[in-house]
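[[Sequence with tokens]]
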Amino acid sequence: MEEIEYAAWSLYTGPSNLGMVIDDPDCPWVVGQWTGVNGDTTSQQIKVDIDQRISLAIETFQKILPSYETYVRNFILPEFFFHCNQGPYPNIKVDGQHYPLEYIQSRFNEKLQGIIPDDNNYYNIVIGSVLTSNIDDYPGFLNSELVNRRLQNLNNILPSVLGASNKTGYRVWRRSASFRDQETMGDDLTALNDFMKECRANPLCTVRNRGLYFHYNRTMMTDIETFVYEKQCESTVDLTMGVFNEENKIETGGMITEWMANYPSYSIIKGDKQTDQLSTNSRFTSGFLGESDIGVEVCLDHRLQRLRRTVGMTKVCGADADNFPLFKQIIPSGGMQILDYSVAADRNCAIFNADGCDKVYRKYGDETTVILNAEAGKFKGITCGVYNQTIQSKWLGRDGNTYFSHSQLAFTTKDSVLGGFDNALGFNNKKALTYDGPEDNPSNIHTDAYSPMVISLGADTDLFAASTGEIHYYKPMAGE
């Protein structure tokens, strides 16, 4: 495993001016404005935004290239890397031929072909996620009677005083609704949660959250191998609720919002393995990997154990394809970390998290357990039951708010064994082992073999709410 390198681009990829809709610590619904460089949603302006993001990604990848030393080289971007000022890209052909995701895939293939060296090494580049919608005319849709009626209904149920929404400072980027019992919630939050249940049951449009995995060895392969994966579970902050105006009422801010959209229905009842070029499942087998899978699990999908649920599923038992043991579990996220009950990697295999929106907690989501006193730095130890190495970043946004991002690398042990998933047991299914020894003195020969490094980028961009971030490089110490 020390012949494999991992690098994450750590930057804040979420909205600016982030705030909670209701002044309640358990409110999972946020206001905020997505950032981009498109002036409108014409094909020309969307192309400008996408092209700048691709150029920045390629430039950043080129900065890590000289540091790589091993046979297999990984570079992962966080969730939400590709979005525009309106959140999801509209359903238009940005160059007259390709819709946004297909255009991004085509351009990356072309760019990577030009810079990946002929050195007989394997390169894996993971484009965290691309937000798109099925709406082509954003102005017409946002001014429609359906949208205006729903917006009015939302404002009618909100309290008249929403003070917390206008305060600056860090806001918890929650990945799902509150765990608090309905009986103990305030009336305002209960009403808002009920309203959002109705909205999710009757979406006005569809949003997709997909990413791209590029696999290439120039010496061994003629073309770059590309897989498209898709997020299954929609978080409460995959979009925002809009923005507050001067009258403290919510407006769309010109964006596709949480109360308009929903993700497509997506089932893994017959496994989660890609079976053809149109598949967007989370498991796939890249060239030269044999009977092993790569698994890419976007954010909330990890917390809800998407990859863990399909461990051991086979064709003879009714799956569409054999779900091979996971050689590598990758988690691009916007507010997630590696969780012990969701680890699905095979024994002696890696789990890697590249996050663009949050800190790391010893107990997930518990602000009293944040590592490093919520400061930037490196950490090695157990968080959420997983022994890992972490690099945490801290950013000051142009809006004055403090934001975070991070990366994590963990490995399962040689004695880790996972069986099939029992839905009735949920989080209590058998967990993978990520360390040997007692909890107060853990170790893992693979995890301990890496030395985390930070490569500063030191630049700014209008594409994101803070800076261009930094590269987190997990270097095998044997290469020193």
